[in-house]
Amino acid sequence: MKNLQQFINTNGPQIQLFLFVGLFFLSWNIENIFGVLFNYKKWKHAFLNAPFIFTAIPGQLLIGLAFVKTIEWTTLHQFGFLYYLPVSKNSLLSFLITFIFLDLGEYVYHVTMHKVKRLWMFHIVHHSDQVVDVSTTLREHPGENFIRLTFTLLWVFLSGAAFWALMLRQIIQAFTTLFAHINYRLPEKLDNIVGLIFITPNLHQVHHHYKQPYTDCNYGDVLSIWDRLFGTFKKLPAEDLIFGVDTYMGKEDVGNFKSLISIPFGKYRKATQNLNP
Q1: Which pairs from 6-15 meet CB under 8 Å and 24+ separation?
Q2: Is 208 helix (H, G, I), strand (E, B) or coil?
Q3: Tens digits of per-residue pLDDT, 237-262?
Q4: Which of 169, 212, 176 lies closest to 197, judged by CA?
Q5: What is the rounded end-to-end Cα distance, in angstroms, of the chain?
Q6: pTM to 2 decimals?
C-alpha cells in the first residue's frame, strides 16, 4: 500500500489526465458501436463542447496550487477530522472514509448548484446539452469549474485528506464521470443491481431530463446512496427522456460557445414544475 501511495503522490495528476483521455476515447468508440442515440452530428456536438477544456485550465491551475498548499498545512498541523479517528495506521480504511466523505461533499455541492439561483445559472451550461454523451463531461462553465474545485478544497481542508487519497479518489471519479455520461444504457436488470450503490448512465440520464422534478434528482457523483438516503432518487423510462433544460432549449441560447459562456451573466429564467415527464 505504501508503494501505491508513493506512486500516486508522485504521478497522481498525470495518471488522472492519461486515464481520462484514454477512457474518453474508449467511451467514444463504445458509443459508436452500442450507443442509444445516433440521430445527431456527433463530431459537431463534440466540437461545441471541446472549448470548455481550455477555459477550465486557468482555474484548475490556480486551485491546484491551493490544494497543494492546503494539504501541506493540514499535514503539518494535523488538522482535519481524519486525524481524530483511529485510522491513521490503516491506509485502506483511511482512504474509504476519505472517499465516502468527499463523495458526500460532491452531493452537497451538486444540490447547492441546483438550489442557489445564480449558481444554477452556471450549472445550466452543463445541463443545457440536448444530447448527453461522453463529450458532455467537458461541458462545464469555467466559473462552475472554479466553484466545484473550491467546494472540494473545503472538504479536503475539513477532513485533512492526504494528497494520495484525494488523487486516487479523483482517478476513480474520472472513470465514473465518463461512465455516467456515456451514450449507452445498461440492461435494466443490471442497472437495478449496479444502481443500488453507484450512479449509472441510466440514472444520470434521468438527472439530465429537461424538466423538474427530474432535473432535481440523482445528484450523486460516484455513489447513489446519498440520493436514496436524502430522497432525491428517481427513475424514468428511456422513452420519456428529453435532454436539456426547458428554459434554454433554443439554438440562440445553446447553439454556440459564445451563447453558452454568457448564460450565467444573463437574466434568471424560472423553471416550470411538471410532475409528468
Answers
A1: 6/164, 8/163, 8/164, 8/167, 8/168, 8/171, 9/163, 9/164, 9/167, 12/163, 12/164, 12/167, 12/168, 12/170, 12/171, 13/64, 13/167, 15/167, 15/171
A2: coil
A3: 999 999 999 999 998 989 999 999 99
A4: 176
A5: 48
A6: 0.92
- Cβ burial of 108 (10 Å; 0-12, 13-18, 19+) is middle
Report the candidate in 122, 102, 239, 113 with the shortest Cα–Cα distance to residue 172. 102
Distance CA(178)–CA(19), nearest Å, equals 11
pLDDT category at 187 given cuts 50, 70, 90 is very high
pLDDT tens-digit profile of 162-174?
999 999 999 999 9
Question: 3-class SS at 95?
Answer: helix
Q: Across the strands, what pairs with 243?
A: 209
Distances (CA, A) of 276 to 153, 219, 273: 38, 20, 9
- Asked whether the bond before 187 is cis by omega within 30 degrees of 0, the reply is no
Rounded average pLDDT over 84-96? 87
Give the per-residue pLDDT at 274.
54
**Closest to 214 measured CA to CA, from 190, 198, 237:** 237
Q: H/E element holding 68?
A: helix 57-77
Tell me the C-alpha distance between 72 and 162, whole Å. Answer: 9
